[in-house]
Design a protein that fits this description.
mainly beta, 22-stranded antiparallel beta barrel, 6-stranded mixed sheet, globular
């Protein structure tokens, strides 16, 4: 036994102390300007990569844990000639400074090729924004859309970023960020954008990642004032962002307010209820209705950063209020109305710590706590009845994430990520079957990822893990579930900047806490909504294949994915006397097939085009068999001319199916815009769906107890225009916005809200 312990200690010491040499210095241009984010590589005698790093905002680099005595050091920076030197370590650490000349010719086989979109040796995609793209972008989301990275889809209006195979998590300089932070980025300070379709290292556990590498400064201040106003319906967002920095400490403030006044969505169609006394059919014709919302956000953080560690603390407050949402309809010729009021307030604190340890090791801690109060009321009236309900929810959240990452000298790496989520919720009801409901839950997730280069072209990643959930509702017994997870990814670099990647994943999804409540609410005279405390755990199995090819003018990504979900929660409907009860069931399995081809093309420096599309199929079997399939496509174009930018886009309809087993057909969407940028001002004006009077969504669902077929007219999907204005100012050095997570959390609680 003692022998085994000694051997383990020796092995551990070998890992942590395998290298001892260190090299540091500064990288500058011939004019003595600091070059930040220059790449410094240490090569062995056989030119194999031993270690690498990037310079900071003042051009400094520091590489430790080098386990060779002789070799080479190679320094490169975009737009400059690279430099290669021979090195020999003695008893003292090496200090080497470099001055790079502006690029005239590339060095044979050493410099990355001239493609603006490149698949790097560690498996992620690097995209370089052009001067025109940065100049005409209103923040980070707009810049990402203008860059047109194959496989990345950006909705400019909502700010949602997604990949061809799922949601994308946003990072800034390697630290998780929220949509508001990315929107507030100064596009001119973005050096490059990294897209990880197979996240490794610090990004372990994410589906896909977009990381903005942003220039950092150490002194001065920066600020911007922005306005985005829509016309055709009233929707405006006004914001202010600023940052003040001195030496290693900076303070940032972000605040914005959005208000919206529009017509409520209008239904035209029918609904059938199969009751004990027979089938009741409701023919619906939408008349009028209005929606008013007001959302405000305030965020402040303090950051202190050195070469060895980063410390950040933040406080934030959000309000999301809907003082009025009303609908007036004719149902079987009789007047019917619905009205909801929904007011939500959130506040919280968050801290982040990152430590750069000896031997290319990093440790990160991210912890936060928040409180949410949500008051909700619902009123239904017709000539025969009146239904009214009120509920108030209080939710406490706490979470902590710890990540350890180690890169070895041969290019292999290991990463460990632990996450713990705690939630405690209480809902007080009026005019319901119960007076209150309480829920608490605690979920732990652990990932361990080992990445190993099988050769210079082939990399294998194995990611085992597990998830555990404990939750308890009211006086019911505590429920505990445990599920293993596994992910395997293999990527192959092919000739001519092509690549191929395949993945296999086994995972799980725990029940949504909001669906477990035993509370119920009446929607109308026939429909009642109720939770189900006996929802099962969902098992997920998926495989995906991706092919990519990037040149100086072309970028291509083709993807095919199949996912099978066992015991997926779907909406269930059953007859109880003269009522239909809508709840949840996990007696259902689902199979999803998604495919997509995304192509970007830049025939000249000031013109970019992107074409994407694919085939998707959704199939459900078990409780209710149903399927939907569709083809979809999208085209975007941007042309830059002097101080102007001209853009256009068009998206075809598509058909999707969600967990309510309803088939939803989306309408055509298209738009045109013109932008103008001069000095500190940016302007943009555009119009969406011109000449289009009616642009409807179509909903179809069939269940023996409850089914419907109607179109939904949404004012936001019709013809409307917008104007955006931004003014920025700076003193001393301009400063990019920091990257600490700014919580804009979706409230998950035990409150049942009526879908109108």
């Amino acid at each position: 036994m003692k022998t085994h312990i000694v051997l383990l200690l020796i092995a551990f010491s070998a890992i942590c102390c395998e290298a001892h040499n260190r090299i540091s210095g500064y990288v500058m241009s011939n004019s003595l300007d600091s070059l930040d984010f220059a790449i410094v590589r240490v090569l062995g005698p056989d030119s194999a990569l031993v270690a690498h790093a990037t310079t900071d905002s003042i051009g400094h680099y520091d590489i430790r844990g080098i386990n060779i005595e002789t070799g080479f050091i190679h320094v490169s920076s975009f737009g400059y000639e690279p430099e290669l030197r021979a090195i020999r370590f003695s008893d003292n650490d090496l200090i080497l400074d470099f001055r790079l000349a502006p690029k005239s010719q590339q060095l044979n086989e050493i410099v990355v090729n001239g493609s603006r979109i490149t698949k790097t040796s560690d498996g992620h995609i690097t995209a370089l924004p052009t001067k025109e793209e940065k100049r005409h972008s209103f923040g980070g989301i707009d810049l990402l859309a203008n860059m047109m990275i194959p496989g990345v889809s950006v909705d400019r209006s909502s700010g949602k970023v997604s990949a061809v195979f799922g949601d994308v998590t946003l990072y800034i300089n390697g630290i998780k960020a929220t949509l508001q932070e990315v929107k507030a980025l100064n596009a001119g300070d973005v050096i490059r954008v990294e897209y990880y379709d197979a996240p490794t290292g610090a990004y372990i556990g994410e589906n896909a990642v977009v990381n903005y590498v942003v220039r950092e400064y150490t002194t001065g201040y920066f600020g911007e004032i922005s306005a985005d106003q829509k016309f055709g319906y009233w929707d405006g967002t006004y914001g202010f962002a600023s940052k003040l920095s001195h030496n290693n400490t900076s303070v940032q403030l972000i605040t914005d307010y959005n208000f919206k006044r529009s017509q409520s969505d209008r239904k035209t169609g029918y609904t059938n209820y199969s009751l004990t006394d027979g089938i009741v059919r409701e023919d619906i014709a939408g008349l009028d209705g209005n929606t008013k919302t007001g959302n405000g956000k305030v965020y402040v953080d303090v950051t202190n950063k050195t070469q060895e560690r980063t410390l950040r603390g933040a406080a934030w407050f959000n309000s999301n209020n809907t003082p009025e949402s009303s609908q007036c309809e004719l149902v079987n010729g009789l007047l019917q109305s619905k009205r909801t009021v929904d007011n939500l307030y959130q506040g919280g604190l968050r801290i982040f710590q990152r430590y750069n340890l000896h031997g290319k090791q990093t440790v990160e801690f991210n912890a936060g706590a928040s409180f949410t109060k949500n008051d909700y009321s619902y009123l239904f009236e017709n000539t025969m009845s009146r239904i009214f309900s009120e509920s108030s929810n209080k939710l406490w959240n706490a979470d902590i994430t710890a990540v350890y990452n180690k890169i070895f000298s041969r290019g292999n790496s290991i990463a460990v990520k632990f996450i713990d989520f705690y939630k405690n919720s209480r809902v007080d009801y009026k005019y319901s079957n119960i007076d209150y409901s309480t829920l608490w839950s605690n979920e732990e997730i652990l990932f361990i990822q080992y990445m190993h280069p099988l050769s210079k072209a082939v990399r294998l990643s194995i990611q085992p893990g597990f998830s555990a959930l404990q939750y308890k509702q009211d006086s019911r017994e505590q429920i505990s579930t445990f599920s293993p997870r596994l992910g395997v990814r293999c990527s192959v670099r092919l000739p001519r900047n092509m690549y191929l990647m395949g993945t296999v994943n086994v995972g799980n999804s725990f029940p949504n806490i909001a669906g477990l409540t035993t509370a119920e609410k009446s929607v109308n005279d026939y429909l009642i909504m109720r939770g189900n405390p006996d929802i099962k755990n969902t098992k997920l199995y998926s495989t995906m294949w991706v092919y990519g090819w990037n040149t100086q003018k072309f970028g291509l990504q083709a993807m095919a994915q199949y996912q099978y979900n066992h015991h997926i929660p779907v909406s269930s409907y059953r007859q109880e006397g003269n009522h239909i009860v809508e709840s949840w069931t996990t007696d259902e399995n689902a199979g999803y097939f998604n495919s997509n081809i995304s192509l970007s093309y830049r025939p000249q420096q000031n013109l970019s085009l992107m074409l994407s599309g694919g085939y998707n199929r959704y199939g459900y079997t078990g409780y209710q068999s149903s399927s939907a399939e569709s083809f979809d496509g999208r085209f975007e174009i941007v042309y830059y001319w002097r101080d102007f930018a001209f853009s256009g886009n068009v998206s075809s309809p598509q058909r999707v199916m969600g967990m309510d087993l309803a088939k939803v057909s989306t309408p055509w969407q298209y738009g045109l815009a013109i932008g103008y940028s001069v000095t500190s001002w940016k302007f943009e004006a555009g119009i969406n769906n011109p000449f289009l009077k009616d642009n409807n969504y179509w909903f179809v669902s069939f269940n023996p107890a409850y089914n419907y077929n109607y179109n939904l007219r949404s004012q936001s999907a019709g013809c409307h225009g917008y104007v955006k204005v931004m003014f920025s100012f700076d003193g001393g050095k301009k400063l990019q916005h920091t990257e600490l997570k700014y919580d804009d959390e979706k409230t998950e609680n035990a409150m049942i809200k009526i879908r109108q």
